[in-house]
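Aggregate trends can hide what the representation actually does to any particular protein. The sequence in question and its structure tokens are set out directly beneath this paragraph.
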Amino acid sequence: MNFLAHIYLSGDNPKVKVANFMADSIRGKKYLDYPPDFKKGILLHREIDTFTDAHPTVRKSTKKLHKNYGHYSGVIVDIFYDHFLAKNWSNYSDKPLEEYVDEFYDLLGEYYDILPMNVKKLMPYMIADNWLLNYAKLEGISRVLDGMNRRTKNKSKMNFAILDLEEHYTVFEKEFTSFFEELRAFSAHKLKSL
């Protein structure tokens, strides 16, 4: 899953949310250097990724992209799935997406000192372009895919994946919806057991 889903699946604990968001930057056992709620968020992130990567529905989604994007297919599906979460946000939360996102950006400011350096560098761009809110629109997803393609020095061709999303939009959305119900249940259980 991508940023928005990881944040959402963290529940209400602000430290778990921030840690889940920054977890890709924490390698190996480095998570042990963090306070308990941050450890929990990092471990939850890893559990979510493992569950997602092995799930047959997610694999069905990535298979549609594999011919054109190879090992980048999983990253693209994560972004597509964040789009459907943002687009259908009112099905998952009583709080409007704009308010939820603004509160999360405030949290990043509040816990700025604990963030890894690469997350600190990413933050201004993320907030200025309001990535999390703009996931709800196809133009926002297109911009994200363009940015990801530039980060791969145009090797991934991920910028073209917006065409795949448009072509298979209904199918991707159905796959997301069925998968996300399972992921929500899995994450809620993991949150309690971590």
Observations:
- The chain has one domain: 3-193.
- The chain has eleven helices and no strands.
- The radius of gyration is 16 Å.
- Residues 3-193 form one domain.
